[in-house]
Specification:
With 120 residues, this protein is of the alpha/beta class. It contains four helices and five strands. It has a five-stranded parallel sheet.
Amino acid sequence: MLIDAHCHASPQWFEPVEPLVAQMDLNRVDCGVLTQVLGQFDNGYQQDCCARFPGRFVSVGAVAPGADAPQEVRRWAGRGMAGLRLRPEARAAEGDPLAVWQAAADCGLAISCGGAAANL
């Protein structure tokens, strides 16, 4: 099985999913991990893509930082999100600073974690 471990489809930033599916078919890629664009937090398009092309995609979404981030993680995980994209420095300003990380762990989500080289 050939998997594209990090791909994008979006009506705002990238091409819609149909050209990606065509390229996957052309190159015999079986499955793609749709990874949310940094700074975008509406994972609905990715979820729709997963539903429209069953078995072809999984979704790595993102949530806005803030006090309700853990609830958003749980909500999107309940809708099928398989992973969460976080920056290494992602912390809550109030309460448990690692609550979003814990919510992801509680939901069994994989973490896509990357940041700027300046943060290393």
